[in-house]
TrEMBL record:
Chain residue ranges for the region called Disordered: 1-29
Protein name per its UniProtKB record: Uncharacterized protein
Organism encoding this protein: [Muricauda] lutisoli
Length: 75
């Protein structure tokens, strides 16, 4: 289970985010959320630092996607 989850996370991290449609961004954001939550459940039990690093990387990518979805404020 953990091994498959880490493979999915690694694949998600390497996936290019340029030239994505809005629906692709929404799907990617949801996928990132589910990956983070799944990894977090395992992290709570094992306290493995590699899992924490993976979660941080996915969260950073998720924030970039969501920033692009919401757009920048017009100030």
């Amino acid at each position: 289970m953990t091994h498959e989850l880490l493979e999915k996370a690694e694949e998600f991290e390497k996936r290019p985010m340029s030239h994505m449609s809005t629906s692709d961004r929404v799907k990617a954001s949801r996928e990132a959320k589910s990956l983070i939550l799944s990894i977090n459940e395992i992290y709570k039990k094992t306290k493995d630092s590699k899992l924490m690093e993976t979660m941080k990387n996915i969260t950073a990518k998720k924030r970039k996607i969501e920033k692009r979805l919401k757009g920048s404020p017009l100030v």
